[in-house]
Amino acid sequence: MTADTAHARLAGLAYLGTIICGVYAEGFARGGLFVSGNAAATAQAIFASEPLFRVGLIADLIMLGSYIAVTILLYGLCRKTSPSGAAIAAAFSLIGIAVLASNTLLLGIVLRMRDLVQSQPSLAETVYLLLRVHGDGYKISLVFFGTYCLLLSWLIWRGRLVPAAVGIMVGAAGACNIINSLAWLGAPQWAAHLPRYFTVPTLLGELALALWLLLFGIRAGGA
Question: Cα torsion at 52, 204, 185, 195 (round to 10°)?
Fold first, then answer.
């Protein structure tokens, strides 16, 4: 096994860890606790399931650490194709990670709110607001991650590191992330009319790349 293949498979493993931890934290640890349009029910659910909420926070941190590893490893593999392109892509990824890491602080504030706010209605409304702002921060980070995926797709296509179909799926993931995030940030009324399955390619594209790298590495003549 060559060093590039080993690094590619390690990147695939880290990428898979990123996806699993991210989906768990956002979709299970927090997703089931957020009650849309009901601040009181949301706050009650969070504080009644505080251990689950905290596990989600830890999963976020593991996700961020894993994605740093992914970024560094893929930079090493892609810089042979285009040093400047790989560096720009890595920069977008690291900025997205920094935004998401800063955004995670809002979840820590949520857990401290009971110590600061005595009024239950005020507590519920503040917790609900923080979670919505966290969602906005998540979307901002996805603009950077989406750009990273687009650049990564181009690097994959140019270097023929993995099959073109996988590269196209990664590019589609990036495009969907950018469109969906900018729509919700800039025109939420229009974004509400987007199909519910519009963001499905974001998961499928990154999952396809993670699994391919983990199982097959990169093409011998690609990098």
Answer: -100
